[in-house]
Task: structure prediction
Amino acid sequence: MYRYDTFDQQFVDERVAHFRSQTERYLAGELSDDEFLQLRLRNGLYIQRLAPMLRVAVPYGTLSSRQLRMLAHIARHYDRGYGHLSTRQNMQFNWPELAEVPDILADLATVQMHAIQTSGNCIRNVTADEFSGVAADEAVDPRPYCELIRQWSTSHPEFDWLPRKFKIAISGAEDDRAAVNVHDIGLLVRRRSGETVFDVLAGGGLGRTPVIGSLIREALPVRHLLTYLEAMMRVYNRYGRRDNKYKARIKILVRAMTAEGFKARVDEEWSHLKGSPSTLTDEQVAGMEAHFRPPAYVERPGAAAALAADRLKDADFARWVRHNVSPHKQAGYAIATLSTKETGTPPGDVSDRQMEAVADWAEAYGFGEIRISHQQNFVLPDVGQDQLYALWQAAQGERLAAPNRGLATDIICCPGGDYCSLANAKSIPVAEAIQAQLEDYDYLHDLGELDINISGCMNACGHHHVGHIGILGVDKKGREYYQVSIGGHAGNDASVGQIIGPSFFRDDVPRVIRRIFDVYLAERVENESFLHCVRRIGVEPFKVEVYAKAA
Amino acid sequence: MPKLLRLNDDANGATNGATNGTPPQLEPAGQWTAESGMGVELSVDQEIEERFLAAPQIGIEFPAFNDGRGLSQAVLLRSRHGYQGDLVATGAVQPDILHYMRRCGFTAAVLPGGDVPDPQTLAPYSDYYQACAIEPEPGRFRIERGPSNIPT
Result:
């Protein structure tokens, strides 16, 4: 993984000092609430329903064991002993004291971490496939380009005061696990005729107006990556709407200009920037790629046979392997997903103890590296196949062994009304009620791949639009209601879900979801997933069943 | 009393952070003519016209301190149009934005309140990753960077 050099370290150290002085100026009354708001947001600090919330950047979801131990320390020392894995691969702390935040940032800087640009109207943490660098289906490892973009976008002189927040995601695998279609800019990195190139999507996004991004440039050579981004950002910074925050994302601009119009404008801008000193040289690209060379894998003779024997011996282990273990590039190794979605635990919440356990396992069963997925789970990227059984046994003891990756209980869920001041409704109790009725593994397994995504408001942090089943909390005259949509999808053939009808009380949601399952189980043809079934038969049969009996 | 704050080190010995005289007289772009010999003031949605380059000063009026459009205009004036005169930030100038303004090519700012910011607020960082209007070589590749001695 990327290691800071002297300049990176100096920059984060200076950033801590800078934010400390801004916090002191605020506490001394020299900065207004509104001024400090903008400055603290660019350092990840929100003021939430109950307390401040600090969002720590986990660049493209990659952490070292040492870094995760520091997050455990922060959870214990400055918070209430836990943190929350966000849908943008970051970690959030819900209970820090405002005056202590500069100290937290100083602690983070000692392990090459920060909270820079994790909120505010600026370029946010770049997200990527959580299996980057290790997935068997990967063509190009996106991490070097994520890091180039991270550095380029950090405190950019021109693009730190945008009309609205700005999210970039990169995927280099066959299966898009980074949801590039629903980002402000989505990048698909490919190798074509020996050259690293990017297909560039723009104007995707969730929130109030869900939009699938438009392809605006194909096969952009890597050397032009930063100058092309500069052209796109300049067009957005100058022409994006600033009069209405709900119409300020780039998707609205792309729609207003049309994708062709936007592309023409960007190309015109780029014609002046192409070849400028920000163009990357082969050496610069190679230098960054060198930071992400594969770790020292060893031959693991007999590893596959050992795994096969372990699976035969223990059916529960076999079940976990089936769902939570993914194929690795390297023979003898596997990728293990440690699910945070045990029923009764808010999705994505992890304790200091769990963080330390995961940090230890990453060292015992890997090279000291951990990933966070946008599904709010931990991933250990380099586990020997013969080590999976020991890992699974240890994970059970820490409630991180739920065999449900990609299943209906692996719910993506924002913090919702329990924590977030923006939320219209609670989301965590809804997730728990749905999980509680899926305790029967055979039934859960029979439902197969099924993404349930829950957001407590239109900001869509829980990505409800792209859930196979999406649930959105809405407020009607002070009461919490839930709107249900089906048929959304975040991967390669991304789609926005369709709302099935009028919204429900919270207590009704589990029953509604159960009826949706019933329709699927009755209507599906052999091996048809829930998503494909909805795409084939449409929303109507679900609607009829849900509303006929609910009345 | 509004003050004019220098953001560059100019030939007359003024340095970043010095207050230097009174704010220039600027005409709004709609009324301004090159013949007037005055500076021109642009709103942040104004497209840049070649005729503005004749002005001895160009002001860019920030409607709100967190509106970044004026930063792009400044970059375009310097990098694309080669404007050499004084570039002055006016309107809602907030001290914490000055270091961005400076890198985008502003040479001065009119401080509405007149309080001069402390040196750390004016220049919080020793260097930056990216290229900018006053430093066309990106820092990432310009700066000598050694391995950090801090373990991960």
Remarks:
- Chain B is about 15% helix and 20% strand.
- The helical segments of chain B are 69-80, 98-103, 119-122, 139-142.
